[in-house]
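Fold this: MurR/RpiR family transcriptional regulator
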Amino acid sequence: MSFCDEVKKRFIRLSRGQRKVAQLVIENPNVVATHIASEVGKFIGVSESTVIRFCYAMDLSGYSELQERIRKDLSESKKVVTKEPLTIGKKHEYLFSEIMNRDVTSILNTIQYVDAENFQKATHYLHEAEEIYTLGFRQCAPSASYLTSMLENFGKKASQIQFDVNDIVKQIKRMDKDSLLFVIAFDSVLEDVLTILKIAKNKKVKVIAITNSTISLVRDYADISFVVGTQKQFSFEADTAASAIVHALIEGMTLLNRNHYKKYYNLNEQLDHDLRLLEEETIATK
């Protein structure tokens, strides 16, 4: 059994902070193998002592033995790869196709993790919810915004929770058993996100979540969860796959009542058309 397999086996018995270390070991072992304990702690938002306690929880003598075990696994599996994000200044003849193919691969890898029954159940949740709250902080905010916009286009009452204490409190107060909370959260999850999820579950709010990890703490609070991308991807690289799932869920929702949703979509299309005409007339009169 590899060390990563041992970590997965003991994951449920680890503390919350230790789980963050475990997640890094499983998904980015090369980072642990090449950085000291304090740097690893800063990278995932925990203390150096938490990293060391993780080692003890795994029956290791300390951080040095942790690195030795990981390096051994990496050497045996020949997976020692340095992950570097693509940069604007990178000279590459096929940069465009490389990026597009990476996104396609991310979506294809996501498909194998999507359970058909959960997908169908999620579309019903979206269709039946009287009010939908979307949540995505930091790098997940654009995906949450896209989801909110798509829902509004089809006449759903949707509100995006902002990264602001007053807005968070206001939105949580409005939630009830007929509400739906749709969370998009990648990598290290903010404590605020977990707090919102706990309160929502206490209020019997249904929760759908999209994460980029099979061991994300968010999944503990979700009625339905979807995992996007691949373990070797940076969180921002999973956005394309997340948007693909969002689009598919919205399409599935509209199929539950074609005429109802088509009416709202046509109204929005007509409004956009009228606004364009108004803009053209305004420009013409200047």
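The mean pLDDT is 83. The CA atoms of residues 107 and 241 lie 5 Å apart.
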